Amino acid sequence: MSKRAVLEVIALDAEDAVAAQAGGADRLELVTDMAADGLTPAPATVAGIRAAVDVDLRVMLRLADGFAAGDVESLVRAACEMREVGVDQFVLGFLGPGGAVDLASVERVVGALDGCRWTFHRAIDRAVDRGALRKQLAGLPGLDTYLTAGSADGVDQGLPTLVAEAAQGGEPGYEQQILVGGGLRLDHVPQLRAGGIEAFHIGGAARPDGWRGPVSTEAVARWRKELDGDETGRPDGSA
């Protein structure tokens, strides 16, 4: 394969961001509070990260643990505050009590993004019907990515779904890029790349000391090498 794979890394602060960029990250997902699986960071934190690096940033719009939208107007205000500090890419995703997409809430928040690009995150892995969710969201402005493990239980269980959805790329509801994350390991990469996956998302895998420690430039570089090496046909990059 000749197309460079996208490597997105979760960053909590400017130190993480600098380390991730130095290791070869193409894009950062900015969050806070990983104990709640990632919530919206403070605008000042985002502004500091933006000043520290020049890679793309996608900021989480999520105010509480779980996949319910909660206070939608607070989400809209958060989106507007991020726009004021220069954010032009976002991450979001909301489900209703029955596991279907909460389309009204998604549309309300997306309406505040003024056409910015955004990722629908792993709420898709908890959806009662992935295909229906994709079709409902297909026409929303700015949606260009789905962050997914293919399963709520992680990439090990989701591999067949990920490869099947990649094969549908370009069909209605499947035009967006698949960004694989959630239990992702280096040994998954060859099969995913062979299946047409071109974007990868890591969080804990970039932190040898866990979430209490910072992003490791060396850990990110290992992923960068694996992704680039896989383009030659071998996981180690040899000819």
Automatic annotation (TrEMBL):
<dbReference type="Pfam" id="PF03932">
    <property type="entry name" value="CutC"/>
</dbReference>
<protein>
    <recommendedName>
        <fullName>Copper homeostasis protein cutC homolog</fullName>
    </recommendedName>
</protein>
<comment type="similarity">
    <text>Belongs to the CutC family.</text>
</comment>
<dbReference type="InterPro" id="IPR005627">
    <property type="entry name" value="CutC-like"/>
</dbReference>
<dbReference type="GO" id="GO:0005507">
    <property type="term" value="F:copper ion binding"/>
</dbReference>
<dbReference type="InterPro" id="IPR036822">
    <property type="entry name" value="CutC-like_dom_sf"/>
</dbReference>
